Amino acid sequence: MAFWLFKSEPDVFSWDDLVAKGETGEEWNGVRNYQARNFMRAMKVGDLGLFYHSNIGKEAVGIVQVIAEAHPDSTSADPKWECVDLKAVESLPRPVTLEQARGEPALKDMVLVNNSRLSVQPVTDAEWAAILKLAGS
Fold first, then answer.
1. Of 5, 16, 77, 122, which sits most exposed with the smallest number of CB within 10 A?
2. Does the pTM of the predicted model rise above 0.70?
3. What sequence ranges are listed for the domain EVE (predicted)?
4. Burial bucket for residue 46 (CB in 10 Å: 0-12, 13-18, 19+)
5. Shortest CA distance to 57 belongs to which of 115, 107, 15?
């Protein structure tokens, strides 16, 4: 299993919006960055990720699961854009802010800390454990 981070502006699509989708989840569509798309192409059903509120809050707030592997993005007529489907698994006991991540030595190499603009990114096993520890899990 691999770990990932998915960023969304909460005023566009929030953690609560994904939670409301229930077991059917939601297509993680609208990504128009080749690197982020390629990360989604590498995902497998069952992989876990962090749901991160960008712009407003700048914090990881929940855990998601990949429930469908890469497929054509329904919001694009261009077949080069693909996405995965996600469902909410659980809220983090405490949100983990970008500021906290930047202050945690174990996260100094995390993509989020060094390239906070990338909307879909990998998370190492050690980074996953550090984030969950900061969240009180």
1. 77
2. yes
3. 2-134
4. exposed
5. 15
